[in-house]
């Protein structure tokens, strides 16, 4: 049901430190036809709630609605408030003046009465602050006027000044102004006095500054956590703070495209710490609502006699049979187990999964995830934090198979959503995505795959493995049926048979002859070498092939001296020589990268983020150019900043570029625009010159070679799950974690033992002592000897299934490794020095499945 009509002025009472305070609601009465019953035959229309997005059907004559879902009042025809304020100047200076006067009166009363000052006298001394706050929050215009007075450089408001406003209230010797602030903030959000559904009424972010100001309240986080060391917060105050978060998130998540662009610009202006703090609050809000789902599930399963969740909730002081107040129980669980998005110490039952039906219709989770999108876009343009900070670790408990299948079904019914950016100058320009225009019309049920930035990298990898496994099973099944139909043997694997001295030629031959089998499970065989591929041979092949493709003699890639990153050779025509050999190798490299992702193998490559952005379809930014060409970028910046009238004489540039081939034997010239060789670069057109220069190196010069490479990559990676990964995550998939030092203690804690060897065996103790003593290079060589790669997986070293087995008693033979299973096999050597010597020989002299 939707409540229709005007609101009466009413009294509200909130206990504060033993004193009852009374204040008037700021709702404006409808002077015309108060509580008039609408005509049932009147024309009807639909309005979407500005907070939760719910579609509300109502007669056109109605001026106000009350959403039955989030209980927010929607003013369809906002009027000027008749409220007469006692304070005419709503500025930060006016507030500070009021605070100063209150402290002066308090000091006077304290010096006069000493310790005998009563609570009533204390409250009376600071009552003008309460009056100021009530007047301030009586109107959205007053709040926006207050934001104007902060002198914001970003044209919204100065968050530091707003923080000072809240700090001043928190430091008062009485808490009544704080309670007044919370209550008035909530009332203003419940009755915003503006039609936030209308694109015409909310045309820019300035009209939503009051929401951003309320969202800056540092106490909001406390409604979602419980600190055992702090004084417990009153449940009704915690509930008010939660209501404030809920409405702020709802309003900001459902803005239109134009306002969304301004919101991203504002978020880019925040400091990294401030940006991260707000992101953590939204993520904690998502965690809070998943915890509520957990509580409901626990109550339901406890009533059915299921012991697992009932016992778990009892352990976290969340007894589903006795708890009645969400705000007395859920924050304790959130704080103790999922605060700051960390995995709980006490794990949930192993078979526990959040079903799509549990959260698919929860508007709280949906609006929070949508709001995080604006933070994600801002972070993509100006990096404020690691992508992992967006992850909500409770996503690891999703029933990801059903979520992904449902999302994939919806994806096939509509065009994919994509982000749009542009590279115009040395400053980033952001265009908002197409789908923002549809944010005000949410679907009845959503999936978490619609908001992939919230999903952890581990769950995304699980989703991709699930899809790959289904694809491999399908390919194997089709091969089997084809074999039956044609009565001939058809291999269910993609088999690559190569000679170690002709890796690229043999690999290209195998891929060309099996181009339709690239999505089958990969098996590698080195000719004239022993070994059955269970993963180890595959790792060796990837390593050798990438090493040969990056050989400078091939000229496919060059190492940019400015950054030491590899990049496509812009003198592509010199490499190809018209015979197409380089084209085939670029295609092969694309296939190799696709197979590496498809088979979960880490590669030893060093590309800038620009490559992974281009793979994911993310347009490049100035930051990508500066990462690859930092020195050139600084020179362009100097040119852009030069203000002398002798610009053309100093720089003497035309719209033309010169470059040499990979071996420096030939110089090429290209015009950046038609007739560019005769067009000088001036102060007026230097922006265009800088844009064309960057675009040439990042896109135009490598267009042919990159397209060939991309075709090879897409020949393998035709995965819907790949759309869930962003460029930073794809880099981690291909190159492993960014960790530079091996955490030996963590690796030791997850290591398993077999073949009769024990964790307490002398040789095991010696091994870990030696491992710790090794320098960085030796540690990585040992890791490569055992696992086939010196890189740590994207999900961390704790996910490596490391194993140590016993070969036998003391021997002069070297240790062995089964890279397929990440297993090190050692003898029980008689001394520590002997083990140390044997390990050094093994890691330095071994190659493939033999010795150098």
From TrEMBL:
Active-site annotation: 820 (glycyl thioester intermediate)
**InterPro entries cross-referenced by the UniProt entry:** E3A/B/C-like, HECT_dom, Hect_E3_ubiquitin_ligase
Record bears the keyword Secreted: no
EC category name? transferase
Reactions catalysed: S-ubiquitinyl-[E2 ubiquitin-conjugating enzyme]-L-cysteine + [acceptor protein]-L-lysine = [E2 ubiquitin-conjugating enzyme]-L-cysteine + N(6)-ubiquitinyl-[acceptor protein]-L-lysine
Residue ranges occupied by any HECT domain in the UniProt entry: 514-852
| Keyword terms, alphabetized | Transferase, Ubl conjugation pathway
A Gene Ontology biological process in which this protein takes part is: protein polyubiquitination
- Does the keyword Transferase feature in the UniProt annotation? yes
EC number(s) given by UniProt: 2.3.2.26
Q: Which GO terms describe its molecular function?
A: ubiquitin protein ligase activity
In terms of SUPFAM superfamilies, this protein maps to: Hect, E3 ligase catalytic domain
The record's listing under Gene3D superfamilies reads: Hect, E3 ligase catalytic domain, Hect, E3 ligase catalytic domains
Q: Which PANTHER family match?
A: HECT-TYPE E3 UBIQUITIN TRANSFERASE, UBIQUITIN-PROTEIN LIGASE E3C
In Swiss-Prot or TrEMBL terms, this protein is called HECT-type E3 ubiquitin transferase
Q: Which organism is it from?
A: Lachancea nothofagi CBS 11611
